[in-house]
# Entry
Amino acid sequence: MNTSSNLSSPKKSYRLGRWITIAIILLGIITYFTIPAVKYFCNQIIYMFSSGDFTVVKDFVASYGVYAAVISFFLMVFQSVAAPLPAFLVTFANASLFGWWQGMLLSWVSSLAGAALCFYIARFLGRDAVEKLTTKSALQSIDRFFARYGRNCIIICRLLPFISFDLVSYAAGLTSMSFSGFIIASAIGELPATVIYSYVGGMLVGGAKMFTMALLILFALSALVVLFRKIYVNRHQDDELKANNKN
# Structure
């Protein structure tokens, strides 16, 4: 009797989470199409991210005065769900507005909140819903990488500013990975990059802008070199293992 009750409890929790997620998404869609101010606000955010200029994001957040941190938190969560908008623009803006360590803390916490939301959207709504929020081809490419490297994928992708980690968060929600394992790996992987981007983000003025962007590109390329080397080594080890098994 107790065993049956224990088995049904996770199923009930899953159904409840699924319906709550669906209700929130439907409420958001209805609000977007029925309230012009909300629609304008969301379109303005998308345009702002597409500009690729962190100063536009900075000015937008600063315009809300005492509520700037709340708006920044919302922007980070919004860009997570609406993958693949660039999160580093918000990170730079936070560092410039709030100081590097306060901005870093805000960026770190809000990005983890966005990652958690992506994870649970995927877990409760499934692959079809995730493909509509992202793209099928992008999700498939992350799937292959995720299946091979698991948590390493989470940590490595967090180091790359121009790779949408939101896709990885969605992909993780489609696996059997526990939420605690996902959020711990995300927090560890994200912290070094967030510290670096926040520190240099406070210096993005005048001629330093191009110099810092060049450093970030160099950092991203370095991380990619490490990543591809790891892939090569793992494949070489797999080939040796297969050869030994045949012998």
The chain has a mean pLDDT of 77. The chain has twelve helices and no strands. The radius of gyration is 20 Å. The first helix runs from residue 2 to 34.
